[in-house]
Structure formats: C-alpha cells, structure tokens
C-alpha cells in the first residue's frame, strides 16, 4: 500500500523545487522548459527527494523504503504532479469503463466485463478532491475552466481522452464521473470485430459516409455513440477539411494527422466569474460554417445548437455527423423537437419536423446491455437504422435495419437512396 501522506508531502517538495528552477531559468534569460523536459527534470527531482528521505530514515534508525515502495512512491508523486493523482492507476487500467465518485471515499468502478466494484478513496478529504479537479481544470482543454462555488459544474477531457464531469455545492458532497475513452483511433473493422456492427451494417455505414449522407447517432448514456462517431469520421477521406464542435474536447480527430490532416476542433467556452466571455455551441456551429468546412461534426447535441446544426445540414454541408441522447431511433425526432422549442428561434414542432426531414438522412441507434450469455461482458451494438423519407405534418421515416435475433441490426426494408449507396460499394444482404 502506498503512503499517500508521503506522496502529498513529496509532491509539494518536488513542486517547490520545480518552481524554483523555473524562476532561475527566467532570471538567467533561458527559454522555458518544454513539457517533456519538465517531466524529465521532475523525475530527477523525485529521485533526489526519495534518496534524501531514505538517508533520513536510516539516520533516525528506521527502515528505509524498499525498492518496490520507492517505485510506487515515485509513480504516485509523478501522477500527483502531472497526472490525475490517485485516479491514475484506474485510468491506466484498460479494463476500467467508468469511474463514479460520490465524495473522496465513495468510489465505484465499472469494468468491461460488467462488474461494478467499490474502490479505495481517491483523496484524503473532499476538499482535496475538489483541489485535484481544479488542477485538472486549469490544464485541460483550450482554456482554464473554473470549478468553485461560483462555477459548481465542470466538463472536460482528460489527457488520455476520457471525459470528466464534476459538480459541487449542488450536491451534499462533490461528485465526479469519468467515462473512459478506451479506443482513441477506432475503425469500422474494429467495431465489426467486437460485435458492435455486422459486416452488412459496416458496409452500409461506410457507403453512407462516402455518399455524404447526414447521420445522427442516437443512444443512451455510455452506449458507445462517440466511439461509433469516431469510426465513421475515420471513413472520411483525408483530403476533406473537418470542423468539430464540442462542449469539451473529446473526439480528438485532430490528434491523428495521418488520418485527418485538416481539422479544426472548436470547444465551447464557459463564462468567467463575471458572467462574461461565453461562446455557446450554437455560436460555434455558426462560426464553423464560415471556416470553409467540408463537413461539420457536432460531438453531442444537448440544446439550442440543434437548430443551427440542422440549418447547416440543409445549406450544402452534406456528410455531417452528430450524436444525441435518445431511447430509440424513433424518439430522436421528438428529442430534436424539444431542443428546438428551447432554442432562441422557438421553432414550432411542424417547422422543426420540416427542418429534420430536409437535414437528416439516417438515424443510427446504438444500445448496450449486460449479456452474460456472450462472455459475460457489457455488449454494445447498433440495433436500428432509420431512414428519413420526408415530412407530412410529422417526420416520415422507415426502419431499414431492425433488431435481429441477437439484437444486432439486420436489413428490413428497401432504402430509397440505394443507388447512391451502391455507387459507394454497398449491396444489401437481402431482406
């Protein structure tokens, strides 16, 4: 077991020495250390501090830490300085799916095999947990994000791509949820391999992206919408200019220039403590249209940006992708109508349905379930694909793929744009 009180003490010592070196470099006119140089220098400082601690323990007649204990302390200090503290081992575990923290000592971890277990505390107090989140907020995303009594809500992307959501003061104790991004670079073949989609659905989606169809991916929380969106985006030719719009940077398409060399990633900016400086999702979608996009990708639709996004889809920006929370492919239309009513335009339902019919070509529904008959793992799979056919007072649509015997989507009805899809390699497997 690692002694977290020692980690905390040594983190302060190393941090002070690191800050002192920065001041010396500045006073001597030297350029600041790069991030990697600073990490290497910190490792040397950590070794120095641990060596001093061992000598001190021997001088006091006590047993110094073993080699294994020193390695654990060094990893803990480095994680406290540059990582996410005691959360780091969980984020390093490839089997961890989600981490829910209801106060520093109430930590629940969900694993890929469907298990949910209680974990050791991630901080010694709730105040220390809040401090950890504040440190992460200061160094994540495009700008510092406040997390305090005036700004009790926080969403951000961790260095490994995981999504963190935190609240304080609106709950009895600070609460944090971390959703792992286990697949950074993911392709359609990966999703076929893990059973998320069938070969036929994979060919269909690949052709839909190639034919520049507008796709809305729907599903519940943690169903795998973002992973599917990444895989679809990786079917877009590298010659196209992509603009992504997100509340907190998560898609990370700009991290893979070999796949997408021309990407601009927009992130919503929250207001400062005076309530100034906010840049909303809707404003960013509007701005993206002036940036010469080939396609606009909206990471997750949660509010009034829906009207701007649908307008973008009907103004020549074909091939756009987005995700939305919904419990079925059919419910997506009602969810969009609700968001449109809340927007500044206050679109009536009839007008929204006309906008949907002109903007969205297909709704792809993905779901999850604990399937103990298939290896006992949490299973995610596309179960339905719905084609939007028009509007007659309501959105007209047909479910072209429906749940099959194992839940996965199978062909069900003719596709009206089949010729376009066929030109991009799709031949239906039969109905």
UniProtKB/TrEMBL annotation:
GO molecular function per UniProt: ATP hydrolysis activity
Sequence ranges assigned to domain Bacterial type II secretion system protein E in this UniProt record: 95-355
UniProt-listed InterPro entries: P-loop_NTPase, T2SS/T4SS_dom, T4SS_GSP_E_ATPase
Superkingdom per UniProt: Bacteria
Pfam family for this entry, one: T2SSE
Family: Belongs to the GSP E family.
Protein name: Flp pilus assembly CpaF family ATPase
Organism: Nonomuraea thailandensis
């Amino acid at each position: 077991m690692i002694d977290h009180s020692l980690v905390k003490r040594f983190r302060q010592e190393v941090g002070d020495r690191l800050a002192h070196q920065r001041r010396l470099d500045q006073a001597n006119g030297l350029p600041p250390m790069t991030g990697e140089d600073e990490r290497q220098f910190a490792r040397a400082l950590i070794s120095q501090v641990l060596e001093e601690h061992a000598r001190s323990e021997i001088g006091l007649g006590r047993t110094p830490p073993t080699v294994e204990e020193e390695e654990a302390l060094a990893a803990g200090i480095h994680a406290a300085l540059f990582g996410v503290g005691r959360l780091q081992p969980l984020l390093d575990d490839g089997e961890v799916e989600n981490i829910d923290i209801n106060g520093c000592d109430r930590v629940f971890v969900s694993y890929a095999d469907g298990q949910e277990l209680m974990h050791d505390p991630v901080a010694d107090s709730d105040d220390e947990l809040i401090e950890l989140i504040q440190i992460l907020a200061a160094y994540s995303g495009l700008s510092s994000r406040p997390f305090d009594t005036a700004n009790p809500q926080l969403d951000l992307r961790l260095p490994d791509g995981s999504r963190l959501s935190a609240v304080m003061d609106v709950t009895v104790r600070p609460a944090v949820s971390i959703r792992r991004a286990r697949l950074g670079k993911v392709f359609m073949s990966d999703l076929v391999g893990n059973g998320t989609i069938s070969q036929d659905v994979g060919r269909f989606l690949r052709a839909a992206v190639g034919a520049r169809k507008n796709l809305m991916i729907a599903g519940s929380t943690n169903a795998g919408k973002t992973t599917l969106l990444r895989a679809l985006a990786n079917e877009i030719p590298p010659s196209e200019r992509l603009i992504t719009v997100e509340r907190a940077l998560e898609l990370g398409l700009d991290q893979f220039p070999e796949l997408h060399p021309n990407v601009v990633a927009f992130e919503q900016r929250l207001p400062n403590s005076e309530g100034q400086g906010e840049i909303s999702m809707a404003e960013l979608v509007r701005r993206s249209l002036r940036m010469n996009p080939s396609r606009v990708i909206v990471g997750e639709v949660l509010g009034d940006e829906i009207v701007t996004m649908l307008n973008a889809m009907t103004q020549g920006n074909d091939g756009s992708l987005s995700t939305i929370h919904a419990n079925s492919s059919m419910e997506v239309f009602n969810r969009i109508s609700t968001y449109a009513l809340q927007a500044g335009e206050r679109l009536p339902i009839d007008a929204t349905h006309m906008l949907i019919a002109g903007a969205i070509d297909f709704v792809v529904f993905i779901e999850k379930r604990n399937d103990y008959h298939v290896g006992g793992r949490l299973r995610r799979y596309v179960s339905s694909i719905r084609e939007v056919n028009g509007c007659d007072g309501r959105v007209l649509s047909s479910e072209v793929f429906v749940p099959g015997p194992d839940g996965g989507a199978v062909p069900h009805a003719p596709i009206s744009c089949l010729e376009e899809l066929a030109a991009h390699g799709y031949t239906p497997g039969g109905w």
